[in-house]
Amino acid sequence: QVHLVESGGGSVQAGGSLRLSCAASGYTYFANCIGWFRRQAPEKEREGVATIYSDSNREYYADSVKGRFAISQDKATETVFLQMNSLKPEDSGMYYCAECNYWSPLRPRSNSWGHGTQVTVSS
Predict the structure, then answer these.
(1) Binning pLDDT at 50, 70 and 90, where does residue 31 land?
(2) Cα-flanking dihedrals φ and ψ of residue 54, to 5°?
(3) Alpha-carbon distance 57 to 15, whole Å?
(4) What is the pLDDT of residues 81-100, one digit of tens each?
(5) Across the chain, what does the average pLDDT equal?
(6) Cβ(86)–Cβ(73) below 8 Å
(7) End-to-end Cα distance, the chain
(8) 3-state SS of 6-75?
(9) Can you tell me the distance from the alpha carbon of 22 to that of 118, in angstroms, rounded to the nearest whole number?
(10) Hey, how many other C-beta atoms are within 10 angstroms of the C-beta on 109?
């Protein structure tokens, strides 16, 4: 079983950067796909932002973040990172780390979510 804890959110101005961290204990054994999802408003569904295959390091990104965000993993510490650059106000939202669906990597594997970490980008 994978236990996920997100951190690193905060408030920045447009154009700024943030680095999110996901402490993902057990993911190297139990998860073959992991990544970041966000919900931009309470009434909106969560969307896949960036995910990575734990074995091959293959990365997937939502079109809206390509070229600005980068996902990475440190298997030794079982941590997954999301470097977010050139942030825009529309990047604001609650960001969640979760297992992704291996056959559709920008979709979550289940409907189980942690507390998330809030990102707020002001214009």
Answers:
(1) confident
(2) -70, -25
(3) 27
(4) 999 999 999 999 999 999 99
(5) 95
(6) no
(7) 40
(8) EECCEEEECCCCEEEEEEEECHHHHCCEEEEEEECCCCCCCEEEEEEECCCCCEEECHHHCCCEEEEEEC
(9) 13
(10) 17
